[in-house]
Amino acid sequence: MFKNFNLDKLKNGLSKTKTKLFDGIKEAVSTKAVIDESILDELEELLITSDIGADTAMKIIENTRVELYYESDRSKINITQIIQNELSEVLVEDENTSSSPYEIGDKKPHVVLVVGVNGAGKTTTIGKLAHNYKKAGLSVLIASADTFRAAANEQLEIWAKRAGVDILQKESGADPSSVVFESLEQAKTQNIDVVLIDTAGRLHTKSNLMKELEKIRAVISKVIPHAPNEVFLVLDGNSGQNALVQAKEFSKSTNLTGLIVTKLDGTAKGGVIFQISAEQKIPIKYIGVGEGIDDLQDFDSKVFIEALFS
Ligand SMILES: Nc1nc2c(ncn2[C@@H]2O[C@H](COP(=O)(O)OP(=O)(O)O)[C@@H](O)[C@H]2O)c(=O)[nH]1
Ligand SMILES: [Mg+2]
Fold it and tell me: For ligand 1, is residue 288 a contact (CB within 6 Å)?
């Protein structure tokens, strides 16, 4: 089974969040001999400013307070452990299945539609996904359906070369659905395993974008009845509360099957993963921890916690 994560890379990528959260907790706790209300306040603020989400932060502090109440010797209490346990609980529900995300079923091609706002990291993520699918022994075709921005083709072409996979593109301004249609036809003829579809993050208006995505989806299902197999929404890990708003918006018009949170290496607010998990029914499938081709990691809640707290 092909699982794609590397604990060291993950630890490295999450180091800013780890410094803020884990080191911050230890520091807050070490300033006083006993845990008092002022420390709890400090911890709550730390959790909230790590983008963990106000509800989760409040719940953690409340549970900590309860444990303190029952423990006569407060110096014995391991606050870091309590917080870690609480955070694990938030992620437990979206426990990944044991199968690798790079295993596809019998029906080919396996079609992956990637959506999200401009700059979220769609194109970069497609390059990384292409690389990973290829490493897993599968043939890949990238469909360049972001025909709205002139530079989009060029950027995607660089990624396709890097990953060593095929790409189908048309001139900018072409109908995105026609790119999708031709890509899927080509995939069928050439017996390609995986088709990754890159899309625009912004059109003239938001409703245009959502309509376009619906149209793309309809074309996919028409050409390949079992598809799309996955619809991934890419979210910038720095966008905090906004990421949740985007997830809601995109859910309305496309049936999302998974979330990909990028740029966790650039932020101390990686706690957003907990907030998204707590509020979304859609599982987080991958996280981006860098701009390199190997920097897309499978999201595994246990490994994520381990990387943050070890
Ligand atoms: N540090 C870092 N940068 C990323 C990551 N993913 C994407 N980026 C950068 O974010 C910017 C926008 O990415 P792009 O793929 O063009 O976004 P798109 O508009 O959604 O296609 C680029 O400069 C990427 O290199 C990541 O996981 N970590
Ligand atoms: Mg793009």
Answer: yes
